[in-house]
Amino acid sequence: MTKRVVLIGHPVAHSLSGAMQQAAFDAQGIDATYELWDRPPIELPDAIGELRADDFLGANITIPHKERVVPLVDRLTEEAHATGAVNTITREGRRLVGHNTDVPGFAAALDRLVGRSKMPRQAVVLGAGGGARAVVYSLIREGFQRVVVFNRHLHRAEGLVKHFGRSAAHMELRAMPWHPSIIESELAKTKVLVNATSIGLTTDVSPIPAEVLTPGLLVLDLIYNRTRLLRDADAAGATVQDGETMLLHQGAAAFTLWTGQPAPLQVMAEALSNARAHGLRSAEGEPAGDEAAPAAAG
Ligand code: NDP
Predict the structure, then answer these.
(1) Which domains, ranges and CATH numbers included, belong to the chain?
(2) Which atom of ligand 1 sits closest to the CA of residue 290?
(3) Which of 80, 96, 108, 177 is surrounded by the most beta carbons within 10 Å?
(4) Whole-prediction pTM value?
(5) What is the mean pLDDT of each run of 10 residues along the chain (298 residues)?
(6) Helix/strand/coil (H, E, C) string of the chain?
(7) Whose CA is nearest to atom 6 of ligand 1?
């Protein structure tokens, strides 16, 4: 029986994950198909219910369902529980397990960004959505001692800090108001800057002024593009990385969860770059939040 894996989101058209995962199944000789299911929130419970059937290996969950899916599965892994978000589902018989592979995906991207240098201990995170939760949890686990979260709506950043209260008890996790002078003063004390907002996804703007970027910074943008922020940071002499590594590694971790096999990383990376060359975009990179554009963009 051909097994099935589905990506459930709204929208999911133009997903890069489809190309990446199908290439991985084919390369490993796994008889499975990766399907895209565009489901609005009201149809999510039924879609999740369908996954309990024998032909499913599992699913990926993307914008805007990552948090909404939490109460719909039977068990959460530590990462999914800690972040309050699920991006991958596996099946144990008829029971569904929710995972969050954005956490190891970000950790892999951070490792690559830091390279052979010593892992820094301070970070500034822009944004407080689902992506930011995976980032902050990953930074806490990595042993960061001070993480400052800036968000346009301060209450959401405060909610994130409260959410991680217990796991961050040993370190300093703070929410601060989105103000360029405060961001500048925090950046002067930090080494790592992560953009987990969707600013720069559909328009060529940076979340922060170029003048506050310094040569010693390590800058990671979750957006799968060479954004204005990354270009500004590069011009300032900083080390930069876009969201590709995170996307690849969250996908690789999901592949292993579904199949029990190591992911063919090279095959997946090539499929990603081919799909991108053909104009496909990540479902993660679909317009979101206030920057929303027509669903078929990309
Ligand atoms: P959410 O919708 O949950 O959060 C969006 C964030 O962006 C919020 O912090 C929001 O602030 C902020 N934001 C949006 N528009 C503006 C604006 N005009 N001005 C200021 N702040 C703004 O999205 P996610 O957290 O799921 O995703 C965030 C980004 O990360 C997306 O670009 C997504 O593509 C990317 N991503 C990439 C992944 C990868 O594998 N590479 C994985 C996950 C995410 P506020 O709360 O104030 O509205």
Answers:
(1) 3-101+247-296 (3.40.50.10860), 103-244 (3.40.50.720)
(2) 15
(3) 80
(4) 0.92
(5) 96 87 98 97 98 98 94 97 96 97 98 95 96 96 97 97 93 97 96 96 94 96 94 98 96 98 98 83 49 30
(6) CCEEEEEEECCCCCEHHHHHHHHHHHHCCCCEEEEEEECCHHHHHHHHHHCCCCCEEEEEECCCCCCCCHHHCCEECHHHHHHCCCCEEEEECCEEEEECCHHHHHHHHHHHHHCCCCCCCEEEEECCCHHHHHHHHHHHHHCCCEEEEEECCHHHHHHHHHHCCCCCCCCEEEEEECCHHHHHHHHCCCCEEEECCCCCCCCCCCCCCHHHCCCCCEEEECCCCCCHHHHHHHHCCCEEECCHHHHHHHHHHHHHHHHCCCCCHHHHHHHHHHHHHCCCECCCCCCCHHHCCCCCCC
(7) 197
